[in-house]
Design goal:
This protein is an alpha+beta fold and about 210 residues long. The protein is built from 8 helices and 10 strands. The strands form 3 sheets. The protein has a 5-stranded antiparallel sheet. The two termini are about 50 Å apart.
Length: about 210
């Protein structure tokens, strides 16, 4: 295996000359050079409006065709992606790509809460209230998300609508701060209690 200095193998250098790059080299200069080399802007004028982030995102998550070459003095195995393959996808799905949102979603606002949850029996036509159980969790919008298992090692996140029949929020907002301290005391350590509550907050999106 030939190597060029301490930066990359000969094969890696040849790949880059043919516009196949690691994601770290997906930049405006390399993309513009590729487009100019093959006069692709004339074929797809709107290609210039596609951000570098979208080129890299499509390479890694949609096109996914890659090869690997050795790079750095540590002989790392680095994935290389073809600008040509990415271009073909963008050209064939230009409107889709323009509308593609790759920005991370902002975390939703939530508040900690302690709620009383009804247990129902009977039938849909004749429901019967069997009792209640209490859970700590988080409120997001009109829903209460909570761990529906006894332990927190493998949480099973459930949700209840705040307006559900017989459902009741016992403690929320600033009141929960004092409750949270008591809850954390019941855990093995303070960090266990905080992790238990924060884990529910982090997993809330997965229930949607």
């Amino acid at each position: 295996m030939g190597y060029i200095g301490y930066s990359r193998s000969v094969n890696a250098a040849e790949a880059m000359e043919e516009f196949r790059f690691p994601l770290s080299q997906f930049n405006r200069n390399n993309i513009d050079e590729f487009l100019d080399e093959f006069e692709l802007v004339e074929e797809t004028p709107e290609i210039k409006k596609i951000s570098v982030k979208k080129w890299a995102y499509i390479a890694k998550n949609i096109v996914k065709t890659f090869e690997w070459h050795h790079t750095s003095k540590y002989y790392n195995c680095t994935d290389f992606y073809s600008l040509s393959d990415v271009y073909d996808y963008i050209r064939d799905h230009i409107e889709e790509v323009k509308a593609l949102n790759i920005e991370p979603q902002k975390a939703q606002d939530f508040e900690y809460a302690f709620c009383k949850i009804p247990t129902w029996g009977g039938s849909l036509r004749s429901p019967k209230l069997l009792g209640f159980y209490k859970r700590e969790g988080v409120i997001i919008g009109q829903w209460f998300y909570f761990n529906d298992t006894d332990g927190y090692d493998r949480p099973c996140i459930s949700k209840k609508k705040l307006t559900a029949n017989a459902f009741e929020v016992l403690i929320s907002n600033s009141e929960f701060n004092s409750y949270k301290k008591e809850f954390i005391k019941t855990q093995k350590t303070k960090s266990d209690g905080k992790r238990a509550l924060d884990k529910i907050a982090k997993l809330k999106i997965k229930t949607k």
